[in-house]
Automatic annotation (TrEMBL):
SMART domains: FCD, HTH_GNTR
InterPro entries on file: GntR_C (IPR011711), TF_FadR/GntR_C (IPR008920), Tscrpt_reg_HTH_GntR (IPR000524), WH-like_DNA-bd_sf (IPR036388), WH_DNA-bd_sf (IPR036390)
Gene3D superfamilies: GntR ligand-binding domain-like, Winged helix-like DNA-binding domain superfamily/Winged helix DNA-binding domain
Protein's UniProt name: GntR family transcriptional regulator
Lineage: Bacteria, Bacillati, Actinomycetota, Actinomycetes, Pseudonocardiales
Keywords associated with the record: DNA-binding, Transcription, Transcription regulation
One example GO MF annotation: DNA-binding transcription factor activity
């Protein structure tokens, strides 16, 4: 997405909006250094102070990270995710607790509202996830596992819950990677499957779906708490 010259009124807000769009639409992926302050000022047709203020605002929300002497980097694809990253840091336990709050009700709603097409998609994602797990492709496994959980929440057809969950995509994927069935020492842990969750949703059993979602997240939390002790 090429940056456009801004209008005179509300320059800072306009620059914030354009920089936010460049991040959320994937123009600048996570971990990439964005153009320098003079380059952005030239592209946008504004002063460097305006760019500096806009970058500072987005850094405050967690979307960008300013590294003194190095540049400014993309830290998250949404301000909600950026805020969670900033507040939680490496607190995996807190991320899992938030996931439990959202995913248990998301599973319950999915069992009540899912379509047949959504059930088919859930099963397809689960099959692909399991394949990557068997092949020990951990990055692809984490991505597909997170996509499966998002698809569950989305199947509940609650727009606000779906958008809240979408905003946590990066930390959810990171939590999947951090709790995958391989330890830093190379020890393989028992795999936590999601077939029961998918089938409960397919059967329209809301209580069983909620119990399945709560069960695997409680198990992950127990693992984390054991590691902390």
């Amino acid at each position: 997405m090429p940056l456009a010259t801004t209008r005179r009124a509300g320059l800072v807000d306009q620059v914030i909006e354009q920089l936010r769009d460049a991040v959320t639409q994937g123009e600048w992926p996570i971990g990439q250094r964005i153009p320098t302050e003079p380059e952005l000022a030239g592209q946008l047709g504004v002063g460097r102070n305006t760019v500096r203020e806009a970058v500072r605002a987005l850094a405050h929300t967690g979307l960008l990270e300013v590294r003194q002497g190095d540049g400014t980097y993309v830290r998250a694809t949404s301000e909600v995710s950026g805020a969670i990253r900033r507040l939680c840091g490496s607190e995996l336990r807190e991320v899992l607790q938030v996931r439990r709050i959202l995913e248990v009700e998301g599973a319950r709603l999915a069992a009540r509202s899912r379509t047949e097409e959504e059930v088919t998609e859930l099963r397809s994602l689960l099959e692909r996830r399991n394949l990557e797990l068997r092949e020990r492709h951990w990055e692809d496994f984490a991505r597909l596992d997170a996509e499966f959980h998002f698809a569950v929440v989305q199947s509940g057809h609650n727009t606000l819950l779906t958008e809240m969950y979408r905003g946590l995509t990066e930390v959810i994927t990171a939590s999947v990677a951090a709790t995958s069935n391989v330890t830093p020492g190379g020890e393989y842990l028992p795999e936590i499957g999601h077939e029961g969750l998918a089938e409960a949703i397919a059967d329209g059993d809301a209580d069983r779906a909620a119990s399945e979602a709560c069960g695997f997240l409680d198990e992950l939390l127990a693992r984390v708490e054991r590691d902390e002790s």
